[in-house]
Amino acid sequence: MANKWFETVAVAQRRAKKHLPASVYGALIAGAEQGITIRDNVDAFAELGFAPHVAGLSPTREMATTVMGQDISLPVLISPTGVQAVHPDGEVAVARAAAARGTAMGLSSFASKPVEEVIAANPKTFFQMYWVGNRDEMAARMERARAAGAVGVIVTLDWSFSFGRDWGSPRIPEKMTLEEMVRQIPTGLSRPAWLYQWLRSGAIPDLTVPNLPVGGAPAPTFFGAYGQWMQSAPPSWDDVAWLRQQWGGPFMLKGVTRIDDAKRAVDAGVSAISVSNHGGNNLDGTPATIRMLPEIARAVGDQVEVLMDGGIRRGSDVAKALALGAKAVMIGRAYLWGLGANGQAGVENVLDLMRSGLDSCLLGLGHSSISELSPDDLVIPPGFTRRLGG
Asked: CA-CA distances (angstroms) from residue 335 to 91, 120, 127, 168, 330?
């Protein structure tokens, strides 16, 4: 059997592209409209350089940290992403991989696997929620997550329902009916290894979201859930504070890009924020998250834990984010490509690459711990950062 290990996330992406049907792969790379933000998320990291040392380097490097009360072995968490039907085991495979590598999992409320199954695979799971429905429905979803053993909540608010992609959106069916399965036969036959995975599992991707319904209602399809979300009134800051109070434990607000919003999040009582632009899948033209991170971390980093997500592709990106004020990062596309390329082992491979790349940076920069990283370790070009809402 060929060696399935890959040496970079870029290789994982190429393998996922070869293994997955075009429509499935297309869903993993999609960004909004022109793709300005998704490109800047990645390209901005390349603008930052390192200032390494050559002697007196530390023989050991410590990468463990704590995020929202959870001890993790490296400052890289699994970001919640919806309907991971790129592999039959989906979010359960990702949860097992994260547990095997000693880190925490963010589980989307739009996931393809029930929260109970995912937490059984990784007890360090944060349940992610969009504001869908009313307060009673939000509270019911939280209580289900609490009963399942979720150790925290992530609330994602950075969504303006942008649509339309210049390169075209992938075709994703509403539901896998018999008619749809017949229609998908050519697609499946074009990727026989992927089709065999699903046939061997005895399941088909039903494209439902089992963590969204309340009160015994059937699980809606992904597009049905998306419709409910679009029809829900956007939450207020009072709603955020109420939700945080209802949960009563570790609570992250994801999607912050402005200093004034970061301060309002602090006032609402959150435990953590993630500087995020939804991976470029939201309002196109929003700056890269690494550009906005320093000013936000400077404004509120002494009051809440500051994380970031968007554009992380290698361990050196993690080092740059930590040097600019993040306590940890969350990855999305990187682990999905790993999942698509090689299932659970592929996700573990991605996390190993993040760890080894970060370790190399610490070594070259002469540090014994991630806590020692600072802007002095970087070459930052003039005008790199963006200060929004200051």
From this structure: 11, 20, 18, 23, 10
Cβ contact 105:77 at 8 Å: yes
By the 10 Å C-beta count (0-12 exposed, 13-18 middle, 19+ buried), 17 is classed as middle
**Helix or strand or coil: residue 90?**
helix
As to burial, measured by CB atoms within 10 angstroms (0-12 exposed, 13-18 middle, 19+ buried), residue 349 is buried
204: phi > 0 → left, psi -120 to 50 → alpha, else beta; which? beta
278 is catalytic: yes
Point out the catalytic residue in the list 19, 53, 87, 278.
278
Q: Which residues contact 188 (CB under 8 A, 6 or more apart)?
A: 21, 194, 195, 198
Distance of CA 184 to the CA centre of its chain: 28
Query: In this structure, what are the phi and psi dihedrals at residue 290, rounded to the nearest 5 degrees?
Result: -65, -25
- Asked if residues 184 and 173 have their Cβ atoms less than 8 Å apart, the reply is yes
Report the relative pairing of strands 125-129 and 272-275 from DSSP bridges: unpaired
In whole angstroms, give the CA distance from residue 172 to residue 76.
30
Give the pTM.
Answer: 0.93
pLDDT averaged over 10-residue windows placed end to end, the chain, 390 residues: 86 94 82 90 98 95 98 98 85 98 97 96 97 94 97 90 70 59 62 76 78 88 80 93 97 97 98 95 93 98 98 98 98 96 97 98 98 98 95
* CA separation for the pair 112, 29 (Å, rounded): 19
Q: What is the DSSP letter of 279?
A: G
Between CA 132 and CA 320 the distance in angstroms is 35
